[in-house]
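Handoff note, outgoing to incoming analyst
You'll be picking up this chain. Sequence as last confirmed:
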Amino acid sequence: MSSDVFPGPFGPMPEAGAAAILWMPPQADAPGPVRFVDGFGPFAEFARGQGADPAVLAVDLGATWDFVAGHPEVLESDRLAAAAARFVGNVIAVVHPAATWRMTGEPEIGTNTLSIPVAGLVQGMVQQPEQRDALLQMLASWEQDDLDDQEMRALSAEDSAPAVVVPARAYVRPVLPLLDFHDESGDVIRYGHRWPDGDAPEESYSRESHPERFAPLSLVVDALVEHLRREYTVEVRREAEEGATERIVLAPARGAQIAITPAVPSVCVDAGALFHAIVPSCICDACDETAETAADELERIVLSIAAGGFREKYPVGRRAWLYTEIRSPDGERRETSSGPAPEVPAEDRERATALLRGLDDGWWPAWPLRSTPA
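Most recent structure output, in case you need it:
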């Protein structure tokens, strides 16, 4: 169809399942992205009836916000509210040409870095008009955010690999005690197998039952520290933290230093210049983590760093984000992450920047093996 409001072409609202924050390789027979959708006509007619020109609103999100905020009756009709949501989404597609429509729980318009539910946005225009400038300010940096995201994706996609990955002798996990925990009815909770169909109930996301089930991670920390001390040339220091918590610092002769702070329920791992991880990262019932699955993650991180499978790049893009990569010694597992660097003093950031600049494409060298295991 043609329109004197939006340039088009117009496409159908995409089917559910295409979230803006998820990226999947395009299928050969998949429909192309939709920039503009139809169904905004009732709102355009309403605007004309109020003396506004829809074509003017279509190129000015601030003016559209002001118009909707000044006409709360838009929300009194489901038909008009739905049309307004489509109109506002199309305006965003004009403002940001890379934005496309997708359907999750409701229609959204966005890119990989930002996805905006349009029905909620229209409600916000009426109910929270003071948020206008905050939204416009956020959208002003959207294009640069997309460029930064592309840079991060390029880092994840490239073939960069550590020059040498040095595995030590096989690490052996200690036997973890089998602990039973019970629910309110007295039945044993089968952690790790609670949601066989993959659908956890909504209330489980806000519930953290029996965090003490992660107490056996202290045995894993001790075993890892002993393994690294025995196999690598590394100094082990134990430092007291606030609250009587112990911090174990492993300073190798060469490579990334690791600091492990064991606690219940989570173990903190700091490594290299800016890397920080919490294991397990979430203990809610929906995630259904166990001491064993948390031990898998903890061992993978620590052993990969020591073996030379650890990469840090900072600062990346205008936002100066941190990119990290963990690659297992056998090369079978590769995990990347990106996001804001931890909050540290400016001098620490400068030190980290200088330190990482001296690495080979961000790869920390493997720790040197002991010639004779201790």
